Amino acid sequence: MPHDTPLIATIVAGLGLAFIFGLIANRLKLPTLVGYLLAGILIGPHTPGFVADQKLGTELAEMGVILLMFGVGLHFSLKDLLSVRAIAVPGAVVQMATATLLGMGLAWLLGWPIGAGIVFGLALSVASTVVLLRALQERRLIETERGRIAVGWLIVEDIAMVLALVLLPALAGIMGGASQTSAASDPLVQWLDLGVGGVILVTLLKVAGFVAVMLGLGRKVIPWLLHYVAHTGSRELFRLAVLAIALGVAFGATKLFGVSFALGAFFAGMIMSESELSHRAAEESLPLRDAFSVLFFVSVGMLFNPWTLLTAAWPILATLFIIIIGKSLAAFLIVVAFRYPASTALTVSASLAQIGEFSFILAELGVGLKLLPPEGRDLILAGAILSIMLNPAVFAGIGWLKRRLDLNAAPSPETSANREAAAAPPATPPGTDDEAPQSTGLTGHTVLVGYGRVGSLVAEGLRAKGLPYLVIEDATRPQARLRHEGVETISGNAVQQEILTSANIAGAHRLIVAIPNAFEAGQIVETAKAANPALAIIARAHSDAEVEHLKGLGAGTVIMGEREIARGIIEEIHGATRQGAVSGTTHAHDLPFVALDEPGSTAGAAAPKPAT
After folding, report:
1. Cα 165 to Cα 84, 296, 364, 376, 515, distances in angstroms
2. pLDDT for the residue numbered 104
3. What number of other Cβ atoms are within 10 A of residue 241's Cβ?
4. Chain segment 450-488, per-residue pLDDT in tens
5. Which of 104, 109, 108 is nearest to 124 (CA)?
6. What pTM was computed for the model?
7. N or C end: fewer C-beta atoms under 10 angstroms in the chain?
8. How many Å apart are CA 327 and CA 99, to the nearest integer?
């Protein structure tokens, strides 16, 4: 058996060190991605010791981009994407143009030719897919209006970069580099002997062709295939089908239509989201998405030479200024100009305040075409590393700024009217702030976190008992349903202390955490218990370990779904035995509702009746 296994060594070293340094970063209250980047620097070629295969690391990172964009597509629909086109298309174009001009200005100061300035500026203008999506997912913003704007903006940048990568080889000779038109152009362009205009036209036609195929054929084939595999009853085959569709569409989109892996994967996920099985597909692909996104940050760290921080300090600071301040300020002004609230503009700006994978590809191409000097590539790499490391701090900064703006803004009847308008059932129009939490006037009430399959049943039981309650929910579709039903709703992630404060957790009688994520539920329980020690807390779990975790953080009652299902089955058998006949099928909404007036304290057995 061969012992030279660079792929295994790269994965083991990357994930192993990422875990160690991620753990240290978490202990020091730093973002875990800082630890992942440090792990990559340690196994990169610029530090002593073990050196991982850089090419393999880059390809593994590309897998992370594919799976992450596929996951985002699963939470998107074509309607969501089209709803933000009015801001995403002009916003991305103007922001990229601004950043490119700023980059050209710095290149001119450094004495580089105009061609180098264009490549350098373009590389600074496009945000990292992985970093942007990771930031939005951690803050549960993907399904909000500002999340859709950021993702739509990202898609436009993606298409623009596909055009740039195709056009650069054709224009290199004009821009002062080594022309590679014949080698880089499409075979159809060469056969028809088309010029630069032909390259642009063919590229746009290919992108349009890919979108048409996905919206036409893909919308029929992908959902049908998922349902067919689901009916086999094999979870293994279903998981394999999800991954095969995601990777196959992404690869085929690149080879057949010339679009990026990320764009292909996004459309695959978006088409799959129309299937009823999309939720299950998202769950099945989540572990791989997490693992490969970690490898992305490790691969970025491998590219970085830490000595450039000393040898080119001032150019690096100028590059960082363009990335974090220059293009973010441009994005902020554009969003505000479209009459969106300042909080939405700040979120979009923070999302774009970094660069990543497309910047590396463009830099390598620029150096290969002799357009960009190697020093330019080093500045781009340094700017990417530092901007990625600083991105969590940027988000923390805008969070502080938004809180200051909220404190300084005096409430007025107009503000109240605007908030009531924002809570109406139709889609939120530009100008409404879907981020600032509204404070409730309820006291002695129940706070329900999550309005999914479990939360909606709990809410139905609360209504039936006439108990006052409100719902904290961060997904757009459940929010619209709740508001249509006239249920008081607070938009946001209950992990954030200000969201719980808006729900008057200090004056509440009961907290019900109906979300399935035990780690996030634990944070909510801990924060709520600190604010209100007398609060009765009911949470859900999927294992004994999760029960103990939530109980240890302060939950008085933790209900484990599997145990309650078993109890319901047993009670049904007992009931059928007593009646002397077998009853019919019992649906989830027919199960007795858990007694909420006096919550018990026994983990997994809080009440005599089952709840799901």
Report:
1. 25, 21, 11, 17, 43
2. 95
3. 21
4. 888 888 899 999 999 999 999 998 776 777 788 888 889
5. 104
6. 0.67
7. N
8. 5
